[in-house]
From TrEMBL:
Native species: Ignicoccus islandicus DSM 13165
GO molecular-function terms, A-Z: lyase activity; metal ion binding
Top-level taxon: Archaea
Name of the protein this chain belongs to: Sirohydrochlorin cobaltochelatase
Listed Gene3D superfamilies: 3.40.50.1400
Organism taxonomic ancestry: Archaea, Thermoproteota, Thermoprotei, Desulfurococcales, Desulfurococcaceae
Keyword line: Lyase, Metal-binding
Amino acid sequence: MKILTVLLLVAHGSKNEKFNEMVLRVAMQLKRKAGKVYVGFLLGTPSVREAAEKAFAESDEVIVVPFFIAEGSHVVKDLKKEIEEVAKGSGKKVVFAKALGDHPLVVEALYQRFVEALRSSITS
């Protein structure tokens, strides 16, 4: 059965496996909210291209969600180029979500990390 819309979560990737594992944990949480989620890494496996190929093969529309703080060259150039090459000629729809940026929930999460560190500082 073909899925209509899927989420493609794209992250930078790292040689540090803990980073990649964190991204996969986030993807599992997103799956509970959004349904089918694919993960691709600019540096690592699965690559953005591999994940995009699977996502396009199994859906009519792919929503690309960059797991990046800002819309730097990786998001604006590298990521879009990879996805657009896979999508080209497929007749499938691709939509690019914004990077996290200054979204209010990012600000709140950063503040919460500050509070946690402050509390840790006081108790140590």
